[in-house]
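Q: what sequence does this backbone want?
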């Protein structure tokens, strides 16, 4: 049964467990966190915890899938009907990416996976497949639509997506990952985004 089709009380309990696990994973890492600690922080019994999640890995994967569902809040799956302004679409895509990388929960999950990548490569592979890979796939679709509907000179939508995302990310993305206290200046991010879009359009318009 999907999360959406479960009774409200069950959804609340599951969200309560996920929130507790996320806080612990972000505070002390994946491996040091035990199911006992998660149950205690979520204020549920271990029996209840295991009724929802068979293992710590299953719980972490569920958290990743939750982030995947939230991806639609940052990047649309397709362009809306009607006239297409390439610059405005690229600005919206860039702002969505900025919001994603400034999102505390999303970045907390990334940090946890990066810290555990060597010891738990399967978690890193899952995060890549359900996070960055999905983000790139959506951006690739949008690039293909911009080529078709806005006349941008894009022969390889996936390569164009990789280049655009790299331009938008710059160095602030790494700064956020490495320093959880770092809060980038919104005005500076907007300025950099405008420069990234200008550069991209110079090569494709």
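A:
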């Amino acid at each position: 049964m999907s999360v959406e089709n479960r009774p409200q009380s069950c959804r609340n309990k599951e969200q309560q467990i996920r929130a507790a696990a996320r806080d612990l994973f972000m505070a002390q890492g994946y491996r040091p966190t035990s199911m006992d600690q998660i149950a205690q922080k979520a204020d549920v019994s271990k029996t209840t915890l295991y009724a929802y999640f068979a293992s710590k890995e299953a719980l972490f994967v569920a958290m990743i899938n939750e982030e995947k569902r939230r991806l639609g809040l940052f990047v649309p799956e397709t362009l809306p009907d009607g006239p297409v302004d390439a610059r405005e679409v690229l600005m919206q895509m860039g702002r969505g990416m900025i919001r994603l990388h400034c999102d505390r929960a999303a970045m907390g999950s990334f940090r946890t996976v990066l810290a555990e990548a060597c010891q738990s490569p399967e978690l890193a592979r899952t995060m890549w497949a359900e996070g960055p890979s999905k983000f790139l796939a959506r951006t690739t679709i949008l690039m293909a639509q911009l080529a078709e509907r806005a006349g941008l000179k894009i022969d390889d939508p996936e390569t164009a997506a990789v280049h655009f995302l790299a331009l938008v990310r710059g160095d602030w993305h790494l700064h956020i990952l490495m320093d959880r206290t770092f809060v980038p200046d919104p005005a500076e991010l907007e300025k950099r985004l405008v420069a990234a879009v200008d550069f991209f359009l110079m090569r494709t318009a």
